């Protein structure tokens, strides 16, 4: 595994009244805030895990929280290949492959009633 590889991404639905508590937890864990936009805070924990706290006002990712308030995402080296293998195994797509920029892409999938994410950073 490359040193700069971020192994895990935890996305949290910061329901009204809970975002501040999640931010406090991130502080207790010694996390470094790397993004602080209205409705979204992203922290990097000491083990390089990303902690994303979604607040009110962000409608795009809210669909991933329809069955629960926490979604785990795993980094893969080849997102398209990984998604293809999982789809052939019967895992259901939630949002397809989303490319937010040239170097970052993600996809959410449904497996046994649980949504999880895969992402690739080039």
Topology summary:
Layout: E1 8-13, H1 19-28, E2 32-37, E3 40-44, E4 50-54, E5 70-75, H2 79-88, E6 92-101, E7 104-111, E8 114-121
Parallel strand pairs: 1-4, 5-8
Antiparallel strand pairs: 1-5, 2-3, 3-4, 6-7, 7-8
Tell me what the structure shows:
Helices cover 16% and strands 44% of the residues. It is built from two helices and eight strands, in the order βαββββαβββ. The chain has helices at residues 19-28, 79-88; strands at 8-13, 32-37, 40-44, 50-54, 70-75, 92-101, 104-111, 114-121. It has an eight-stranded mixed sheet, with helices on one face. It is globular. The two termini are 14 Å apart. The model has no long low-confidence stretch (mean pLDDT 82).
Gist of the model:
With 122 residues, the protein is an alpha+beta fold. The protein is built from two helices and eight strands. It is globular.
Query: Could you say which structural class the secondary elements and strand pairing correspond to?
Result: alpha+beta
Principal-axes shape call: globular
Question: What is the residue-mean pLDDT, rounded to a whole number?
Answer: 82
- End-to-end gap: 14 Å
Which percent range describes the beta-strand content?
Answer: 35-45%
Please compute the radius of gyration using only Cα atoms: 14 Å
Order of helices and strands: EHEEEEHEEE
Helix percentage range: 10-25%
Task: Please state how the strands of the largest beta sheet are arranged side by side.
Answer: 2-3-4-1-5-8-7-6
* Number of separate strands: 8
Count of alpha/pi helices:
2
